[in-house]
Write a structure and sequence with these properties.
271 residues; alpha+beta; Immunoglobulin-like; six-stranded antiparallel beta sheet; three-stranded antiparallel beta sheet; 48% helix
């Protein structure tokens, strides 16, 4: 902004100087032409008497008229020269103004470009600072464990995933889905808009319990929002298996489901 103001002031000052100097040159040319024209009009400089006295009387009148016409012609020539010089002076001034104006115009455009570039850079820095703030204050959701839960009053209906918020702000889950390793198809089974407060855990139903003779290992993901407009994604792997009773008469482990959550912290595709 200061550069633009300085450019404007310098341009106005130069324009005023160029105008006044050309006006002064025009006055000088006009004064010189007026003096020359008056000199040609002065009878003392015409010399009509000296040139015509030696002629016979009948021819003297024609001689005087011719001498005066020559004097008038020289006056007109002087005025024509005056007009040409004045036109040349102003043409030169216009040419100089055009060149200087173009130079200042280019300089002004460069200042505008620099101002625009710096404004954009400032906006980028501000956006980067805002993004850094979002990143430091946002929620970070990860799956930490799993269990067999119930849904609609029936035991063992659904595999539940416990989601923990390790960030500094609440996270709002907007979508959850799974993708089998041998398929690109997935189903979104999330309870949308589930809020996970900072430092707390929430159990979310993920998918139906598989049959006991068909263990499942699948990749799940959750999409969530926090501070700022960005949508984050967290990936993890869930393994679900059924174990029959094992052990002997002294120590036996009852049949049970096993739900393991792995790759749940720092997955390469996490955002």
């Amino acid at each position: 902004m200061i550069g633009l103001i300085v450019t404007a002031v310098v341009t106005v000052a130069f324009g005023a100087w160029l105008w006044m100097s050309t006006e002064a040159l025009q006055l000088k040319i006009e004064h010189h032409a007026t003096e020359a024209a008056n000199r040609y009009a002065d009878p003392r400089h015409i010399g009509e008497k000296g040139e015509c006295l030696s002629l016979p009387l009948p021819e003297r009148a024609g001689c005087v008229a011719a001498v005066r016409e020559a004097s008038y012609e020289r006056q007109r020539n002087e005025r024509d020269l005056e007009a040409q010089q004045i036109m040349a002076a102003w043409t030169r001034a216009i040419g100089i103004a055009t060149v200087i104006g173009s130079a200042f115009g280019m300089f002004g455009l460069s200042l505008i470009f620099v101002t625009f570039r710096e404004t954009r850079r400032t906006a980028q820095v501000a956006q980067e600072n805002l993004d850094a703030y979002y990143e430091s204050e946002r929620a970070t959701l990860h799956a930490v464990s799993g269990q067999i839960g119930n849904k609609s009053g029936h035991e063992g209906d659904v595999v539940g995933i416990e989601i923990e918020n390790k960030g500094r702000s609440a996270g709002r889950i907007i979508e959850m889905g799974r993708q089998y390793p041998d398929s690109t198809e997935g189903d979104s089974t999330a309870k949308k808009w589930t809020v996970v407060p900072a430092g707390q855990k929430v159990l979310i139903p993920a998918f139906p319990v598989p049959s006991k003779d068909s263990p499942v290992s699948t990749v799940l993901w959750i999409k969530y929002r926090s501070v700022g407009p960005r949508i984050y994604t967290s990936y993890f792997t869930v393994q679900v298996s059924w174990y029959e009773q094992v052990g002997n008469s002294f120590m036996a482990i009852a049949p049970h489901w096993s739900v393991k959550v792995t790759h749940n912290d720092g997955h390469p595709d996490d955002t």
